Amino acid sequence: xxxxxxxxxxxxxxxxxxxxxxxxxxxxxxxxxxxxxxxxxxxxxxxxxxxxxxxxxxxxxxxxxxxxxxxxxxxxxxxxxxxxxxxxxxxxxxxxxxxxxxxxxxxxxxxxxxxxxxxxxxxxxxxxxxxxxxxxxxxxxxxxxxxxxxxxxxxxxxxxxxxxxxxxxxxxxxxxxxxxxxxxxxxxxxxxxxxxxxxxxxxxxxxxxxxxxxxxxxxxxxxxxxxxxxxxxxxxxxxxxxxxxxxxxxxxxxxxxxxxxxxxxxxxxxxxxxxxxxxxxxxxxxxxxxxxxxxxxxxxxxxxxxxxxxxxxxxxxxxxxxxxxxxxxxxxxxxxxxxxxxxxxxxxxxxxxxxxxxxxxxxxxxxxxxxxxxxxxxxxxxxxxxxxxxxxxxxxxxxxxxxxxxxxxxxxxxxxxxxxxxxxxxxxxxxxxxxxxxxxxxxxxxxxxxxxxxxxxxxxxxxxxxxxxxxxxxxxxxxxxxxxxxxxxxxxxxxxxxxxxxxxxxxxxxxxxxxxxxxxxxxxxxxxxxxxxxxxxxxxxxxxxxxxxxxxxxxxxxxxxxxxxxxxxxxxxxxxxxxxxxxxxxxxxxxxxxxxxxxxxxxxxxxxxxxxxxxxxxxxxxxxxxxxxxxxxxxxxxxxxxxxxxxxxxxxxxxxxxxxxxxxxxxxxxxxxxxxxxxxxxxxxxxxxxxxxxxxxxxxxxxxxxxxxxxxxxxx
Length: 716
What we know:
By secondary structure, the protein is α+β, with helices and mostly antiparallel strands. The strands form 6 sheets. Strands 1, 2, 3, 4, 5, 6, 7, 8, 9, 10, 11 and 12 form a 12-stranded mixed beta sheet that branches. A 5-stranded mixed beta sheet has the order 13-14-17-15-16, with helices on both faces. It has a 4-stranded antiparallel beta sheet with strand order 19-20-27-24, with no helix packed on it. The protein is elongated, with a radius of gyration of 32 Å. The protein starts with 6 loop residues before the first helix and ends with a strand.
């Protein structure tokens, strides 16, 4: 018979849970205390006949004593422990880490899938499997679940939060979640399961992955150097997606803890400070078995649950393969109300009030969209490269399937890029695109700086750029002519368009493989991984200036990334440019055969003429700056007035804040001199480019609108 924990430590814990001493057990068994002590210290084990008596004394069955894969049900029951209020009167009105992300299932998909990739067990070479399950509960199913999570014990805490909900954001979210459950008689659960992952290994309190996720904030313990996360913030998306601030966890461990691996269960609740029954509580609470070693046995810890318990908590895992299941209780998707998704879908409701942040069908679609957009590369294999990830999404209502399980297929979600990556893995790329379906490859250098702000270059890492023709009417990536950049874990970090493409360029898609994604044999691959990981913000959606990059390298280290971006864009433009035709071909021959009548030139007006802004293209750059390309229309005249481009932020009232230029460059028909545009005599149109200085921005660029003016003279 398979056994779990060693008999001695297991028996010692059961005595603590039951509130019994070794002497009391010895009396019940009619044995000496020395015999019980020998079992606990491991010097001996009881005879099989004595096992039956021990089971009777502990109030359990003899099988539990033999296998020791779970605790007995005697003694302290599973309950909620709420952290007491601070003795100095301090108050936490919410978990600050959760404010780093929106209540958005697409953000949740990105962060949780990234974490599963980081925890993949690599020894067997198999991918990590991640499944998202949406489950709407109503009626008896909802009542049974509330009973399983001891809702009656929590209700007074939720009521206390609702009473003061108007004073704080977290309270308003929680109050809305509770009201929705009672008024509409429903509760949406969103479970994230991963398999072939490490699981939450380690002790409940000391350093380890379990404590990092369940007990601590801003701690990141990743399994590999190419991990996506580094801030310890990603786990906060689980609680941010719950309108009730409640997440339940069931983990199967890759490394035994207390001699066991299966059904390690705990729950964590994130509420703001509150006062209940005259007692003050700091915020978080944990559902678990009271720890006999804690003062007054008040603190709860994880427990080894039985199959019936995990089933009642909707935490049953499909196999004993290592990994973790996170159940988000009261899931909602506030970001779904923002209008169109990136795939361009319109919201379903036509009238105010029709939108529903808990529509499981819409949430299912948004999860599939996000997973295909951000993890297509991790799901792609070819040649000797195997996929790192398999993902699926399904939806239920009271145990009945509402939306069939959908396996996310990268060749459907991102057909062109998937083709490009497979060609790279299979060694079928070409130097230049000459036929449809080909994939062109080009090496692009990333010059890595020296640590500590020292001048010089550590080495040059060769990133791999792949370019291929876009699939017409099939690419669901929110736009063609883009570069998806990724590193070791193959999650898309950066998506950016390519500017200043040649006229007549065929639509394309491009992939940039950097760090270990370019191949472990690529020079300085590990160093590039470390450098780019430090250049990612908590959202892991771009590379640019970060505090960590400044502290570990230098304030100007991000310029190495800017140089990489410029080289990538130049390489793309070169690869997609159409070959020039000779002067004897096509239109040139026709032009010579035609006689074109021209109108006489109009007489130029006397005196100076003032150029006018005609066209403006603007976008937010990688570092948060505004990047603009502007065209100027110039009337006929003998003298053209010099003009000064002035960038401002649009505001509702008062003067517009002026932004400084970090760069102002003439493209054609003009030149830039001390921030002033001076135009070539006789030109009718001119073009210039510019980027603003981020340090002159009073607020985050994504929250602003840009106004560009041309002013005569010095621009004052």
